[in-house]
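Q: Protein A?
A:
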Amino acid sequence: MFLRAIGRPLLAKVKQTTGIVGLDVVPNARAVLIELYSKTLKEIQAVPEDEGYRKAVESFTRHRLSVCKEEEDWEAIEKRLGCGQVEELIEEAQDELTLIAKMIEWDPWGVPDDYECEVIENDAPIPKHVPQHRPGPLPEDFYRTLEGLLSESKTKIPAATSADTHLKE
């Protein structure tokens, strides 16, 4: 018992560097992560329960917290989460706490009932500052395959009669 309580921390691998400029090693990263994730779960309670943001934050934070509680070693935490180094996870958790505070302040889910959104009709011109996605041409193989499929379907499927089209309407 004594060796397990005292020896394990002494035998744990010590990280020398993160290898990322400006990101220092956090010797007690597991404890810091557990504290940050617990705080995140507490603070996200201020967000309405049915909001997607809250559901997403709670989901990944609970998962990460459970991994941190189950694993003792920083290497095992990094490997199981697969989201970078523990020091990066600490920065992400701190950023998430900042974002939660901002989201509560901004209240994006509290849109008033009388709020009217501008509707742009299909025939309205698109403003010049709005980027337009125009996909490039498809490869010739696509058109050959499509043509082959269409010609096959015409030979196998009988043409619709006027009674069939009347039923669809």
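Q: Protein B?
A:
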Amino acid sequence: MVAPSSSLVNVYPLSSYTFGTKEPKMEKDTSVADRLARMKVNYMKDGTRTSVDGILLVQEHNHPHILLLQIGNTFCKLPGGRLKPGENEIEGLKRKLSSKLGADSLSFQPNWQVGECVACWWRPNFETILYPYCPPHITKPKECKKIFIVHLPERDYFAVPRNLKLLAVPLFELYDNVQRYGPVISTIPQQLSRFHFNMISPIKYDQ
């Protein structure tokens, strides 16, 4: 088996992973307006918000799929979240991934292998709009969101909160689909285009 490098990503079949459920994880905000209001309060206390998300890849029909958490019937997001003030980005992402997808038992926690940062998005104001750059006239951005690729092992167990769904969405569906997935998720195919995907087929995997 070739070890992952900065440009090589081993992608294992979705069928090689086991999925279970755990207690619901309720969202802190009931609306976008509430979320932006809470962000403003936190900004006054802690300054620019730093959040980290993980790209978790699996494969079906020899094509990469990304694991997304679905809230309700339409809204999808990458697993991740806000860092604590001064928290290391990698360790913070591992904490957030375990919170979102790790089992309640510490003995079943995934061994998250966080790779490189593939994208950085900026929120200039307390609005929903994010940019893949910080506008030059903005000296105090409200949020910096970093997207990391996460190298999954050959097998693992994921526990999904009962109020969420975990979807495996193919790259071709995400590509340029801003209306459905938003600008951050819909540009992931471009961000991953420089990587080489080593597709591990189910037959090869089970040998």
